[in-house]
Amino acid sequence: MTNLISVIICTYNPNLHLFNRALSSLKLQSLSVDYWELVIVDNNSKIPVTPDILWHPNARVVKEPKQGLTSARIRGFVEAKGQIIIMADDDNVLEPDYLQNCLAIFDKYPKIGAIGGNISPDFEIAPPEWMKMFWPCLALRALGKHTRITNFAGHQINYYPDFAPVGAGMAVRSLALKKYMASISNDENVIQDRSGTKLTSSGDNEIVMQIMLNNFEIGFFPELHLIHLIPSNRLTKNYLGKLNHGIMNSWTTFLIKYQISPWKRFPKYLLWPRLIKAYLKYKPWKTDQNFVIFKGIKGQLQALAKS
After folding, report:
1. Which label site among 14, 215, 221, 255 has the fewest CB atoms less than 10 Å from its CB?
2. What per-residue confidence (pLDDT) applies to 184?
3. Which domains, and CATH codes, for the chain?
4. Where does the Glycosyltransferase 2-like domain start and stop, copy by copy (predicted)?
């Protein structure tokens, strides 16, 4: 057994139908199971996760009792033995050549630390047209057919690349994770991804940022493609509003932490006046789209308010 790749799936109370589809896509990978391992992190699910993984000779389920995707990912990183780590969600269907392509990319680009690709949706029900502007909130990405690589080595990082990989399907070089793993041990303000029903985000952005700070390149590669399975309960005004609020709040917090925020902070006593102004400007009572936009603005303003 040569552990070139570790595939990590973090899960919490998974939708078993979607989870099984995700596992089936791994079963169909062109890369032989002799060259990769599968680590499933059960993040304190109400019913213990017991997937059918007998088809893989080096697959296991580990438990992480501390709630939250960030804690689950860290547990997966500690468990992983591979030179490359691929993060897949429990509703991600990876194309059959995904692992093989990741291996080839890291072999071709020795300075690359983290990579990602395009993410297409598979909706349980047809979504309304107005939701399209919020597809990035659901980790959907259509970035084209051209490879994009950035390199901040030796230069100050003054912006976050728009093609940086997201958590779904992100592949990282284990060596490049060292700075992130070292930083979280002494950082009380680690950016937290979703936890239970709390829909925060940007924990994956912090992983990428720490990899760049460690002088590794990051890249977008169109040959990497996965499908995000999206159930109907994620295609509602209320869910997208809560999601947009959590994402904009944590995204702004992330930008502030790394001193690359384009927005100025303000005293906390100005929060309510600015929320009222935003409420009147975006009129969340008029349309579902306006409602979701306002929720995002609210999350952003709450992050910008100085305590």
Report:
1. 215
2. 77
3. 5-230 (3.90.550.10), 239-306 (no CATH)
4. 6-162
Question: DSSP class of residue 40?
Answer: E
Burial 197-227 (b: 16+ CB within 10 A, else e): eebbbbbbbbbbbbbbebebbbbbbebbbbb
DSSP 46: S
Please, which residues have CB within 8 angstroms of residue 107's CB and are 6 or more apart in sequence? none
The pTM of the full predicted model, rounded to 2 decimals, is 0.92
Start-end of H helices in 214-270 = 237-257
Least confident stretch, 63-67, 90-94, 222-226, 242-246: 63-67
pLDDT of residue 5: 95
Q: Which residues contact 294 (CB under 8 A, 6 or more apart)?
A: 241, 278, 279, 282, 283, 284
Nearest to 190 by CA among 141, 233, 253, 238: 253
